[in-house]
Amino acid sequence: MGAVPTFGAVALDCPDPVALAEFYRELLDWKAAEVAEDGHWVTLRNPEGGARFSFQRVPDYRPPAWPSAENPQQAHVDLDVTDMEAAHERALAIGAKLLDDSPETFRVYADPVGHPFCLCAC
After folding, report:
1. 112, 19 in Cβ contact below 8 A?
2. Which CATH class is domain 77-121?
3. How does DSSP assign the chain, residue by residue?
4. How confident is the model at residue 83 (pLDDT cuts 50, 70, 90)?
5. pLDDT per position as a tens digit, 86-100
6. pTM for this entry
7. What architecture (CATH level 2) is domain 9-57?
8. I need a surface site. Which of 37, 83, 108, 119 has the fewest CB within 10 A?
9. CATH 3.30.720 domain locations along the chain
10. Mean pLDDT for the chain?
């Protein structure tokens, strides 16, 4: 069993891991982040257990490009919500940018440094 990995974390590159962790901490309503001594790695722990959300400083960070015919989407985060309108307003108020609201069951946003994420109706 020790040879089978468990899902530990999702890590996002960014220019300022403390600031981006704070955005997601507020969006998810999780507890304060754990910041490495050098400030280059920050971790949010899911209060219900499970995978962590981590952020690492990358020099010369470039945000992901929104998908197009020339540039496919590489990855995004899905976040489940029970009240889409309230979650939408909250996300915008803390710095998310709406990218696509055409689907009825989810909306696509970018975090403050450009990573795409979806709010998904559940």
Report:
1. yes
2. alpha beta
3. -TTS----EEEEEES-HHHHHHHHHHHHTPPPPEE-TTSSEEEE--TTSS-EEEEEE-TT--PPPPP-SSS-----EEEEES-HHHHHHHHHHTT-EEEE--SSSEEEEE-TTS-EEEEEE-
4. very high
5. 999 999 999 999 998
6. 0.89
7. 2-Layer Sandwich (3.30)
8. 37
9. 9-57
10. 92
